[in-house]
Amino acid sequence: MRKILGRALISFFIILSSVGAQADSLQERILLTFIPNIQFAPFYVGIADGHFARQGFDVTLEHLQEPDVLDLVAAGQADFGIVSGEQVILARAKGRDVVYVYEWFQEFPVGIVMVSDDGGADLENLTDMTVGIPGRFGASYSGLTTLLQSAGLSEDDIELNEIGFNAPDVFCLGAVDAAVVYVNNEPLQIRKRVAAGDCGDVREIAVVSVASRVDLVSNGLIVSADLAGRDPDKVQRMASAFNSALKATINNPAAAYLASGTFVETLPGEPALLTLLRELAAEQAVFLETDPTREEIAESRSDMLVLLADAVGSDDLTQFEVLLRTIALWDADTLGHSDLSSWEAMSDTLRLMGLLSDDPPDLSASFSNQFVTGIGE
Amino acid sequence: MAEVGKKHDTELGSRSTRTLLLQLRRSSPLLSLVALLLLWQLLTSAEIYPAFIVPPPAAVGEAFIEALQSGLLLKHLSVTLEEMFFGLILGLGIGLSIGYAIAKMPILEYTLSPVIVAFQSTPIVAYAPLLVIWFGSGPTSKIVTTAVIVFFPSLVNTIVAVRAVSPNLRDLMTSLNATPWQTFRQLELPSALPVVLAGLKTSATLAVIGAVVGEFVTQGSGLGFLVTSARNQYDTPLVIVTVLTMTAIALSLYSFVVLLEWRWLAWRRRSKP
Amino acid sequence: MKLSLRELVVDFKTPDEGRLPALGPISLEVSPGEFVCIVGPSGCGKSTLIRTLAGLQRATSGSVAGDDVPITGPLATLAIMFQDANLMPWRTVIDNIGLPLELAGVDKARRHAAVYELLPQLHLQNFALSYPAELSGGMAQRVALGRVIVQRPKALLLDEPFGALDAMTREKISLELLDLWREHRQTVVMVTHDINEAVLMADRVVVLSSRPGKLVADIAIALERPRAINMIYRETFLRLVRETRAAIDPPDA
What we know:
The complex is a heterotrimer. Chain B is mostly helical. Chain B is about 85% helix and about 0% strand. Chain B is built from eleven helices and no strands. The two termini of chain B are about 40 Å apart. Chain C has a domain of about 130 residues: 3-Layer(aba) Sandwich (Rossmann fold). In chain C, helix 2 packs across helix 3, helix 2 packs parallel to helix 4 and helix 6 crosses helix 7. The N and C termini of chain C lie far apart (about 35 Å). At the B-C interface, helix 8 and helix 9 of B face helix 2 of C.
């Protein structure tokens, strides 16, 4: 009796594991944060244009809370996730053995927007000002702490208001003098309102990005240390696939925008805009054949925007502009590479915020450039 | 002599067995708790999930003591309790009085029911952010979320309870020339009390949800905030401590209502000898 | 108290706005201190008659009066008792009996004095602090009776007060009621469906026809008081019962 039961159990587990294994070789989940958005364009390009498939992955995307992404990857429930470096430090301090293997955002995306009469920005002016922030958590809060620290200020020197993700409204209503924002998004919306005379008596704004002051580690690809040790080939293939998708997105944002349409339901897609984008994408593909330099490609992106702005209303173009500004945060000579100094800067900020105890964490084990080096050209 | 001794022994034996069984029965709720703890310990020992996802009981116990000593738990607990207290008073007050009015005036039910049903069938989590915008990120919005979630069961139970008052007893009160206040105080109130208290049990446990939902929306203080903040700091034991604290509040409130039932509804425990 | 019905008619509204005649026209006079039983086929409007006298039901036409004063609502001097003991389950025996006094604003000490004085007559002295759930049907009905008596009413209106009790209890409690009545001498109008009970207790038995109830017989009961249970074997008793039964079910009908 016991034997039969044992055999039944064993065959049950064999079936289970074979189902699991089969799914494993085909399907791969990548865990993202936030919601589907144009800022995840490299993943949409990677799926739509076969960058993942060429490395043997059939990728599905899921959006979760950042701590959940981290725990699921750390527990081996999912192999790949995208989180910010700050979360990696915090989670490692609490026993999650994850490794950051590919730096996606080369620049920390947070900054502070404030009224400026002459276009100049001086952080010291923040003293006694009312500053809006989504909340005392996440990248906005660590970004603000770093900025204040870099200006020799602290949270006590300003009046901090939790305003949720409503910076353009609250700022233009005059309820705050400055606001912590994502530099690739809100400043764009505020500038449009200023231009339309729809932002109170604000004539000019200035943005100080964290990246302009301190190099802080930002979003990147994480895997569990276990996976990195057990199956480095798989990690390498994912790093290569993402690298190739990211590069394609940077090089041809028109094509990337088109590829994102299927994934981001709310993305503006008027026929006129799409037709124009298709033409631009085809022209860009030809241009890329000529092996242009990074600077030349950056210039071609600006040209695209000028061309589009002439033909399409500016409201429909906002998301494309967000994409271009976000690309500026990704672009670098060597994509994916992470510096120890940016990790140290982040760790200092976290300690300043009281989120990290004083014993220094082993930051060099938090990340690895091994898989970036391993990407074949 | 030996016979007698034997008999005595068996009697003693059977009595002690009976006492043991009685004690087992009395302590059975405690036993289920112990069993739950054992199962939890077993699960963590089996390492199906790593400790950072399912921490062992001991780690949670440590986190509890630490959170207690640092004052962190009590600080956020008192915030949540205050919101719940005022939310309960507001929600029950409105629910009981509107419920009574509806029970007495059917036309009111006809007029109000679409609003009330719509209100009830909309999940509070969906519009809690709006309440925060309307009532600010301070305690008021959390008091309102609590009140809203508590309101409905107290309303429905009040209507049902007042409608269920025996028409014969109403006749009796009329024949005795009772004033409306006397009818309320001597007939409707005691007659409706069992059902209203049953509704209060539901409301009491829902109040915790109301306050915590409000705290999830605005980050600041309270157990809802503590759970998010612990989660963001990857402190799973503290997450569990906070969740268990919420459970404890709900259970205490529930027990408090049971106590009220015990005191106020003593007559229900009486029956023919 | 003298009770009088003059050309009383009571109709009920039906859901389709029609009118369902329930009672009358009927005229009847009950002298002070008289014990009148009302019998009739079920649905003849006996209960409606009692409820109208108690001021719980409005007359459609005609009038009801107590001591020649029209009855338009409940009176403190006119107490009604129902078939169901109708006790408040959350009140003890003494608090149930004392309810009318409490509603009338009598203070606790005087209320308790009045109630405790009644308890022995009701055979409830050992149940003062019991709750209704702990009482038998007969005892519950005694409590209901106590609640009526304690008001010291001038007239008692009893709507099948013992209808839900078993035969033995019913007989016993009927005679107890007669004892109480002999002591206080209120006017009593009692509805019953038991002809033996009616003849045994009443000075007059009034027979109503089927709906809408009209007066078909008014039979004087010439039996001496105090009544006793063995009277039911007397020839006079049996004749009166036969006479009453014939009025309810006419042999030629």
